[in-house]
């Protein structure tokens, strides 16, 4: 059990003891029993005397009992009151010791690869039937569940994150810097990738063929951030519009203060519900990993991908170089061991690498940032859901490499004007990509239209996206964790002793 949950339990038990002492007096003894039953550890408090339940809701809602109850509720724990043989008993069953999530994830990957290799021996008709009849429906069901929760999760996390900052001055300091850093670094890394790609793709360095219609289309992308109504962004999964609505709600609640207490509590409680649902989804992520990798292994898409190895190889090379440079910079600046930093980030990286979903890794990512990297919840509550949408450099570089490769394949001239527009469009589309597997399919259509690439390129692109989606999502989340460390340090919201320690690595 991590240190945060241990502290929550201790504070909640202390609250119960204070209530009992207030009722019975300090002279009455209290017995604390700790043990293990049916594989679960438990705590039991016993006080002899008249019946008194400290867990009952008090008349004063502002008293500590509601606060302590929420601490345990956030952990999924519920203390039980019993009155036996003249004794008041409070029983709290602690969760069973969990298997290391990284072990589960690695096990799912290994099992999927082994099963996939064995599945390749089956007749093509049997593999097609298995894919269409079982694997695809299971995969789509998980995606529907993920998509259902992803929109509300982003909305509530951003709205509550803004409100929990405390005041509008702090919001202006943190929010403005985060958004500028997220968008600025995304554009910078994409532009740097464009320069790095020059030796791999034939580029005419002349400036020509830049017209007003292309610039107008880019400007329209910014205008489309404003939604037509409140419901449509959630139905379509438009992350940018959801964030805009959430930011507006959070800022209004923050400005109104006590006048919006009911709305603030509603957002807080709804946020707890959605976070709990995300934890349930995270618990079945290993199964989802197995399904997605096994489906890829037995399908014919691997054969098509193998024939278009160049963009994949170039992309992996760029990601390794850029991500490696960023991690080395963070390790040097924060004076933390690079291997320790990598090991702490690995569980989140593995989940996103094997699911292509930043939403599926949200719970693990939040735990990593707060418990292992020492980033304050003031930053993670607001910055993590915001960064999942706004900070997608891995996806932007992915779009750029695919666009350049398809332009070469279909003999579309790549000149300096084309490259500049490609950098802008891919950076914007990366922000607009929903944080779920396959979220970039519609973005490819928009990108090809703006860059003059024929629609016929979409068929191969969708196949290549099976690989790119996994790598880009994993890279973006690692970029995000590194960026949050830097921003938290700059704002003074990081525990460097937690970041530098080997614990949790």
From TrEMBL:
Record keywords: Cell membrane, Membrane, Transmembrane, Transmembrane helix, Transport
Membrane topology: Multi-pass membrane protein
Membrane-spanning intervals of the chain: 102-122, 142-166, 178-201, 239-256, 276-297, 312-332, 344-362, 382-402, 414-433
Annotated InterPro entries: Na-dicarboxylate_symporter, Na:dicarbo_symporter_sf
Record carries keyword Metal-binding: no
UniProt xrefs under Pfam families: SDF
Alphabetized Gene3D superfamilies for the sequence: Sodium:dicarboxylate symporter
Subcellular location: Cell membrane
Entry GO terms, CC: plasma membrane
Gene Ontology MF annotations: symporter activity
Listed name of the protein: Dicarboxylate/amino acid:cation symporter
Source species of the chain: Candidatus Blautia faecigallinarum
